[in-house]
Design goal:
Blueprint (H helix, E strand, L loop, with lengths): L2 E5 L8 E2 L3 E5 L2 E6 L3 E2 L2 H9 L4 E5 L3 H13 L6 H21 L4 H18 L5 H8 L7 H23 L5 H10 L9 H4 L11 H7 L2 H7 L9 H8 L19 H18 L4 H11 L6 H14 L1
């Protein structure tokens, strides 16, 4: 049996939990609460008094946990910003871990899809939580795998919130899923090749650049023969490195849909910060200089205002 960790702050007293709860004691997992029981106040206070911040569930019940969170978020008065942030971090971390481990399975896709929907609910009309999600994962001392996971979570969260602020007809469902998956092919490269995801393109030699430019297509290939993967999601993944200047890849496109351009811009921004360790303030100050021509001018203006308001 495999387990995933859940933040204790995501549960509230009196709520029925549709999954079994386990506590980790040394190297063992002890059954603590039965499925369809509730976390009463006494239990929660006792766990917190012991300094416990997480409990565990069987990974096979992850979808039950996500359904529980979705129900919790429907009752917004029960969820503070702290709880919503914990929920967002839990569902995105657990789903991307599963996606990175098993990128081409329907289970991973369903978990990512559910995570995207939950993040949309959490970020809707909220000016604070995005900053908490994004700042949580920007640790340059983490492993490459952990940094990639943070990049996928951050890109999806930023893209979903930015699309919401545009008040356009962009499907945040497809956008969110594509953002989570856009660099999933990272797992299919050698350890040495994975380092390219954390290197400035302008500093790559010709051979390295050729390898790196294959990653959008490789990400699509992991899903393209799967009946559960929507075509618009695959199209977004394929175009996430394209620029309207024609300087992107793999197809040097000069026309992008609004959703494709949003994903490209958000993926570019978070790669600079999370993967390359660039100063967000420098990016903000130079966005209208360095990226003019790569993206529509009006979109750059809107993105800069977005960064000022939310990040």
């Amino acid at each position: 049996m495999s387990f995933i960790s859940i933040r204790l702050s995501t549960v509230r007293p009196g709520l029925i939990v549709p999954f079994n709860v386990y506590l980790k004691v040394a190297d063992n997992y002890v059954h603590y609460l039965h499925k369809n029981d509730d976390f009463d106040q006494v239990r929660l206070d006792g766990l917190r008094s012991r300094g416990l911040k997480k409990f565990h569930i069987n990974e096979e019940e992850e979808l039950n946990y996500q359904a529980f969170l979705a129900q919790l978020l429907d009752n917004v008065h029960l969820a503070s910003n702290e709880v919503k942030t914990s929920i967002a971090l839990d569902v995105t971390e657990n789903s991307t871990q599963e996606m990175i481990k098993n990128p081409a399975t329907e289970k991973s896709y369903s978990m990512v899809k559910s995570s995207s929907e939950i993040v949309q609910k959490i970020l809707a009309d909220n000016d604070v939580i995005l900053r908490e999600i994004v700042s949580h994962g920007r640790n340059q001392n983490s492993s490459l795998s952990d940094r990639m996971q943070s990049h996928l979570i951050n890109t999806a969260s930023i893209a979903i919130k930015f699309a919401e602020t545009l008040k356009s007809d962009i499907s945040t469902n497809s956008l969110g899923i594509a953002a989570f998956y856009h660099d999933v092919s990272f797992t299919g490269y050698s350890a040495e090749e994975q380092k390219l995801f954390f290197k400035d393109i302008n500093e790559m030699d010709a051979a390295s650049l050729t390898i790196y430019k294959t990653h959008p297509e490789k990400s699509v290939q992991m899903l393209q023969d799967k009946s559960f993967a929507e075509k618009d999601v695959l199209d977004l993944i394929m175009a996430h490195e394209e620029k309207i200047s024609g300087q992107g890849f793999p197809n040097k496109r000069t026309k992008l849909s609004p959703a494709q351009e949003v994903l490209s811009l958000c993926a570019f921004y978070d790669r600079e910060v999370t993967c390359l360790g660039r100063d967000p303030k420098h990016l903000y100050n130079n966005l209208m200089i360095d990226q003019v021509g790569n993206y529509n001018l009006e979109l750059l203006k809107q993105f800069k205002n977005f960064l000022k308001s939310y990040l």
